[in-house]
Amino acid sequence: MPRNSNGRKRLRLHGEIARNIGVKIISGKYKPGQLLEGEISASETLHVSRTVYREAVRILAAKGLVVSRPKVGTRISPQSTWHLLDPDVLSWVFEFEPDASFLSNLFELRRMIEPSAAALAAERRTDEDLEELECALEGMARDTLATPAGREADLAFHTAILRATGNVFLVSLASGVGAAISWTTIFKQRDNPLPRDPIPDHRRVFDAIAASNANAAYAAMSNLVDLALSDTMNARGEPKKPKKSR
Length: 246
What we know:
Number of helices: 11
Number of domains: 2
Oligomer: single chain
Radius of gyration: 21 Å
CATH architecture of the largest domain: Up-down Bundle
Order of helices and strands: HHHEEHHHHHHHH
CATH topology of the largest domain: Four Helix Bundle (Hemerythrin (Met), subunit A)
Helix content: 55-70%
CATH class of the largest domain: Mainly Alpha
CATH superfamily of the largest domain: GntR ligand-binding domain-like
Structural class: mainly alpha
Largest sheet: 2 strands, antiparallel
Number of strands: 2
């Protein structure tokens, strides 16, 4: 049954309130351990019902940003509990300038996961997987990463590699890894277009997977992630040389 207009409005409201509070938490305006305004006063300040505000807090709690306790209130959680790969949380991070350490950590995670996934995909991929990868490559080449359609194709390429591994745990990382790829791609083009064409890097990954060459797939994906890190750091005005692939 379609959601009625009041339901849609409430959904938009509590989502927007969660985003506003989430950005303040991630940016450091609200500090770990700090108590949020009480439910009654917060709902009055925001001119929303207590139900809407409560739903917004539940969103934040589900993402590890706050914890609510009866008779205590809602307290900001330490960063160690934040679900940083949650697509919403990552989008809030990139609403302001992520520091170099955060970006380095994010790419370290990608380098731990994606090259190994590419190697596994080279060993297990099916013809259908290759068709999906090639279709994504064609979309990236046609639309470029400067467009939403091109970035969607880029996301499809990386997601297809995780699926081609046949490992359900790796596939479950697609949402988080995909959000990291999408937001860093947007970030590194925020002021200027990319200084180089990343499509050949993706093509080398595809060729290695198509050839069932796990070592080449690992090396090609490692190089792709390292160059993406370099591009992202350059966007911050902090050049970083990519590591050499092993």
